Amino acid sequence: MPDSPDTPKSLRDPAVLDARRAMADAPHVRPLRAFARTIAAERGAEVPDPDPLDGGVEARLLLLLETPGPSIGRTGFVSRDNATGTAANLFRFLAEAGIARRDTLIWNAVPWVIHAPGALNRAPRRSEATAAAPYFAPLLALLPRLAVVVPAGRFAHEAAAPLAALRPDLPVVPIPHPSPTYVCTSPSVRERILAGLTQAASHLAGAP
User: Fold this and answer.
1) For the segment 31-66, what is each residue's pLDDT rounded down to a tens digit?
2) Any idea what DSSP says for residue 39?
Protein backbone atom coordinates (compact mmCIF):
# COMPACT_ATOMS: atom_id res chain seq x y z
CA MET A 1 0.00 0.00 0.00
CA PRO A 2 1.36 3.49 -0.83
CA ASP A 3 2.62 5.68 1.97
CA SER A 4 0.01 7.82 3.67
CA PRO A 5 0.15 11.56 2.97
CA ASP A 6 1.94 13.54 5.65
CA THR A 7 -0.11 16.72 5.17
CA PRO A 8 -3.87 17.37 4.91
CA LYS A 9 -5.89 18.06 1.75
CA SER A 10 -3.71 15.90 -0.50
CA LEU A 11 -6.67 14.88 -2.69
CA ARG A 12 -6.79 18.38 -4.18
CA ASP A 13 -3.79 17.26 -6.25
CA PRO A 14 -5.16 15.60 -9.44
CA ALA A 15 -2.26 13.16 -9.57
CA VAL A 16 -2.85 12.05 -5.98
CA LEU A 17 -6.57 11.71 -6.67
CA ASP A 18 -5.93 9.62 -9.78
CA ALA A 19 -3.63 7.33 -7.79
CA ARG A 20 -6.24 6.95 -5.04
CA ARG A 21 -8.94 6.13 -7.58
CA ALA A 22 -6.69 3.46 -9.06
CA MET A 23 -6.75 1.79 -5.62
CA ALA A 24 -10.51 2.11 -5.11
CA ASP A 25 -11.27 -1.56 -5.73
CA ALA A 26 -8.56 -2.94 -3.44
CA PRO A 27 -9.65 -6.15 -1.65
CA HIS A 28 -9.93 -4.55 1.81
CA VAL A 29 -12.42 -1.92 0.59
CA ARG A 30 -14.21 -3.86 -2.15
CA PRO A 31 -17.04 -5.17 0.10
CA LEU A 32 -17.65 -1.68 1.49
CA ARG A 33 -17.63 -0.21 -1.98
CA ALA A 34 -20.23 -2.77 -3.09
CA PHE A 35 -22.29 -1.89 -0.01
CA ALA A 36 -22.09 1.80 -0.95
CA ARG A 37 -23.37 0.95 -4.43
CA THR A 38 -26.27 -0.98 -2.93
CA ILE A 39 -27.25 1.97 -0.75
CA ALA A 40 -26.94 4.34 -3.71
CA ALA A 41 -29.26 2.19 -5.81
CA GLU A 42 -31.82 1.92 -3.02
CA ARG A 43 -31.76 5.61 -2.11
CA GLY A 44 -31.32 7.02 -5.61
CA ALA A 45 -28.43 9.19 -4.45
CA GLU A 46 -24.64 9.15 -4.58
CA VAL A 47 -22.77 7.32 -1.82
CA PRO A 48 -19.02 7.98 -1.70
CA ASP A 49 -16.48 5.20 -1.47
CA PRO A 50 -14.32 4.48 1.58
CA ASP A 51 -10.74 5.71 1.29
CA PRO A 52 -8.51 2.78 0.25
CA LEU A 53 -5.68 4.16 2.38
CA ASP A 54 -7.87 3.50 5.44
CA GLY A 55 -8.57 0.14 7.03
CA GLY A 56 -11.65 -0.93 5.08
CA VAL A 57 -13.12 -4.18 6.38
CA GLU A 58 -10.10 -4.60 8.68
CA ALA A 59 -10.91 -1.37 10.55
CA ARG A 60 -11.13 -1.48 14.32
CA LEU A 61 -12.41 2.09 14.74
CA LEU A 62 -15.51 3.41 12.96
CA LEU A 63 -15.49 7.20 12.81
CA LEU A 64 -19.02 8.26 12.03
CA LEU A 65 -19.65 11.68 10.47
CA GLU A 66 -23.06 13.10 9.55
CA THR A 67 -23.54 13.03 5.78
CA PRO A 68 -21.38 13.49 2.68
CA GLY A 69 -20.54 17.12 1.98
CA PRO A 70 -20.18 18.92 -1.35
CA SER A 71 -16.49 17.95 -1.62
CA ILE A 72 -17.57 14.36 -2.26
CA GLY A 73 -18.49 15.35 -5.80
CA ARG A 74 -14.87 16.29 -6.45
CA THR A 75 -13.24 13.10 -5.14
CA GLY A 76 -15.89 10.41 -4.62
CA PHE A 77 -14.29 9.40 -1.31
CA VAL A 78 -15.07 9.78 2.36
CA SER A 79 -11.56 10.78 3.32
CA ARG A 80 -9.47 12.74 5.79
CA ASP A 81 -7.51 13.81 2.69
CA ASN A 82 -10.38 15.74 1.09
CA ALA A 83 -9.71 19.44 0.58
CA THR A 84 -12.04 20.66 3.33
CA GLY A 85 -11.47 22.15 6.74
CA THR A 86 -13.33 19.31 8.44
CA ALA A 87 -11.21 16.67 6.72
CA ALA A 88 -8.02 18.58 7.53
CA ASN A 89 -9.00 18.76 11.19
CA LEU A 90 -9.72 15.03 11.23
CA PHE A 91 -6.35 14.36 9.61
CA ARG A 92 -4.57 16.29 12.36
CA PHE A 93 -6.65 15.08 15.31
CA LEU A 94 -6.37 11.40 14.39
CA ALA A 95 -2.62 11.75 13.95
CA GLU A 96 -2.26 13.61 17.23
CA ALA A 97 -4.22 10.90 19.05
CA GLY A 98 -1.84 8.29 17.63
CA ILE A 99 -4.55 6.31 15.85
CA ALA A 100 -3.13 4.31 12.98
CA ARG A 101 -4.81 4.94 9.67
CA ARG A 102 -5.12 1.21 8.95
CA ASP A 103 -7.31 0.93 12.08
CA THR A 104 -9.93 3.41 10.88
CA LEU A 105 -12.96 3.57 8.64
CA ILE A 106 -14.65 6.92 8.10
CA TRP A 107 -18.35 6.56 7.28
CA ASN A 108 -21.46 8.73 7.45
CA ALA A 109 -24.52 8.23 9.65
CA VAL A 110 -26.57 9.11 6.57
CA PRO A 111 -24.25 7.67 3.93
CA TRP A 112 -25.88 9.14 0.84
CA VAL A 113 -25.72 12.71 -0.49
CA ILE A 114 -28.75 14.64 0.75
CA HIS A 115 -28.14 18.09 -0.72
CA ALA A 116 -29.42 19.08 -4.15
CA PRO A 117 -26.89 19.15 -7.01
CA GLY A 118 -24.86 22.33 -6.84
CA ALA A 119 -26.30 23.33 -3.48
CA LEU A 120 -24.49 23.81 -0.22
CA ASN A 121 -24.75 20.97 2.24
CA ARG A 122 -27.55 21.14 4.79
CA ALA A 123 -28.12 19.57 8.17
CA PRO A 124 -29.57 16.06 7.88
CA ARG A 125 -33.12 15.51 9.08
CA ARG A 126 -34.25 13.06 11.72
CA SER A 127 -36.30 11.26 9.06
CA GLU A 128 -33.07 10.67 7.13
CA ALA A 129 -31.41 9.22 10.20
CA THR A 130 -34.38 6.88 10.56
CA ALA A 131 -34.09 5.86 6.91
CA ALA A 132 -30.35 5.22 7.37
CA ALA A 133 -30.67 3.12 10.54
CA PRO A 134 -31.28 -0.23 8.75
CA TYR A 135 -27.88 0.08 7.07
CA PHE A 136 -25.97 -0.22 10.35
CA ALA A 137 -26.48 -3.98 10.66
CA PRO A 138 -24.99 -4.83 7.25
CA LEU A 139 -22.20 -2.32 7.89
CA LEU A 140 -21.29 -4.01 11.18
CA ALA A 141 -21.34 -7.38 9.44
CA LEU A 142 -18.58 -6.10 7.16
CA LEU A 143 -16.39 -5.02 10.09
CA PRO A 144 -15.52 -8.16 12.09
CA ARG A 145 -12.61 -6.51 13.94
CA LEU A 146 -14.53 -3.41 15.05
CA ALA A 147 -13.62 -2.41 18.61
CA VAL A 148 -14.97 1.14 19.04
CA VAL A 149 -17.31 3.64 17.36
CA VAL A 150 -16.61 7.38 17.41
CA PRO A 151 -19.62 9.50 16.37
CA ALA A 152 -18.56 13.05 15.50
CA GLY A 153 -21.20 15.59 16.42
CA ARG A 154 -24.61 15.40 18.05
CA PHE A 155 -26.47 14.20 14.97
CA ALA A 156 -24.08 11.31 14.36
CA HIS A 157 -24.23 10.35 18.03
CA GLU A 158 -28.01 10.23 18.02
CA ALA A 159 -28.12 8.47 14.66
CA ALA A 160 -25.73 5.82 15.98
CA ALA A 161 -28.20 4.76 18.69
CA PRO A 162 -29.17 1.56 16.80
CA LEU A 163 -25.59 0.36 17.20
CA ALA A 164 -26.18 -0.12 20.93
CA ALA A 165 -28.97 -2.60 20.23
CA LEU A 166 -26.99 -4.38 17.52
CA ARG A 167 -23.72 -4.55 19.45
CA PRO A 168 -24.24 -3.68 23.15
CA ASP A 169 -20.63 -4.71 23.80
CA LEU A 170 -19.25 -2.08 21.44
CA PRO A 171 -17.89 1.08 23.13
CA VAL A 172 -19.24 4.34 21.69
CA VAL A 173 -17.08 7.42 22.30
CA PRO A 174 -18.77 10.60 21.02
CA ILE A 175 -16.69 13.65 20.10
CA PRO A 176 -17.65 17.15 18.93
CA HIS A 177 -17.91 17.66 15.20
CA PRO A 178 -14.50 18.63 13.78
CA SER A 179 -15.76 21.35 11.44
CA PRO A 180 -13.58 24.49 11.57
CA THR A 181 -16.61 26.60 12.44
CA TYR A 182 -17.24 24.58 15.58
CA VAL A 183 -13.63 23.91 16.53
CA CYS A 184 -12.92 27.64 16.47
CA THR A 185 -15.72 28.47 18.89
CA SER A 186 -13.68 27.49 21.94
CA PRO A 187 -10.34 25.86 22.81
CA SER A 188 -12.34 23.32 24.80
CA VAL A 189 -13.76 21.84 21.58
CA ARG A 190 -10.32 20.80 20.40
CA GLU A 191 -9.55 19.42 23.86
CA ARG A 192 -12.77 17.38 23.91
CA ILE A 193 -12.10 15.96 20.44
CA LEU A 194 -8.60 14.90 21.40
CA ALA A 195 -9.78 13.50 24.73
CA GLY A 196 -12.40 11.38 22.96
CA LEU A 197 -9.98 10.12 20.33
CA THR A 198 -7.44 9.31 23.03
CA GLN A 199 -10.11 7.32 24.85
CA ALA A 200 -10.95 5.51 21.60
CA ALA A 201 -7.25 4.75 21.12
CA SER A 202 -7.19 3.15 24.57
CA HIS A 203 -10.00 0.80 23.47
CA LEU A 204 -7.92 -0.15 20.45
CA ALA A 205 -4.92 -0.84 22.67
CA GLY A 206 -6.95 -3.32 24.69
CA ALA A 207 -8.60 -5.01 21.70
CA PRO A 208 -7.26 -8.03 19.83
Assistant:
1) 999 999 999 999 999 999 999 999 999 999 999 999
2) H
Angle between helices 187-205 and 85-96 (to 10 degrees): 50
- The tens digit of pLDDT for each residue in 104-113 reads 999 999 999 9
- Burial class of residue 194 (count of CB atoms within 10 Å of its CB; 0-12, 13-18, 19+): middle
Q: What span, in angstroms and rounded, lies between the C-alpha atoms of 101 and 4?
A: 8
DSSP state of 105: E
Identity of the amino acid at 30: R
Phi-psi region of 98 (alpha: psi -120 to 50; beta: other; left: phi over 0): left
Where is 62: in which H helix or E strand?
A: strand 61-65
Q: In this structure, how many other beta carbons lie within 10 angstroms of the beta carbon of residue 206?
A: 9
Query: What's the pLDDT at 164?
Result: 87
CA atoms of 7 and 27, how far apart (whole Å)? 26
Tally Cβ neighbours within 10 Å of residue 191: 11
Residue 101 has a CB neighbour count (10 Å cut-off) of: 17
Structural contact between residues 23 and 76, judged by C-beta atoms closer than 8 angstroms: no
- Quote the CA–CA distance of 168 and 35 in Å, as a whole number: 23
